[in-house]
Amino acid sequence: MGVKPVYEAMRIARARDLDLVEVAPQARPPVCRIMDYGKFKFDAAQKARESRRRSTSAGVKEMKYRPKIGPGDFDTKTRQVERFLSEGHRVKVTIMFRGREANHPELGMRILDRITDHLDGSAKVESPARIDGRNMVMVLAPEKKPQEASARKVKPKADVLEPAAPVVPEQPEGAVMSGPGRDG
After folding, report:
1. DSSP 99
2. What class, spelled out in words, does domain 60-153 have in CATH?
3. How far is it, in rounded angstroms, from Cα 122 to Cα 148?
4. Which of 132, 150, 165, 182 has the most C-beta neighbours closer than 10 Å?
5. pLDDT tens across 96-132, in order?
């Protein structure tokens, strides 16, 4: 629009039912823009919310196992690991050894292998198992497309069949049925 005095710019903005917004106050002359400021703030908030939603800060979660873990605890902890991965988090899986267990790292490797087998398709090993003092540590990261991986694991439900009518054996005409509770 060019260089205008402030009062004229204000008159133009009011005529269009818009706001006069100062964009660059340090410039000589100061730069202003005629816009709907409420809509501008709303759009900026929407963009900020969208960018926060897209950039979910995927932290590192940790799950600790023991070499002598029971099957129920193993399943529960592994389900938690699977949930963390589906949320986009990386997961640090730690096997904690106590006492003489540290002399048998193969027990820890067996557990880590079971975990990776269970999570096949929904996770990839980011850092392989390594011994760190009395612990064995492995880091898992979610696959690029966690939704597709979980969709592959879902088994289709079997079609529900209606109950069949009771099967009654056919009797030739004139046949008489006898037995307990039958008249005949």
Report:
1. G
2. alpha beta
3. 9
4. 150
5. 999 999 899 999 999 999 999 998 888 889 889 999 8
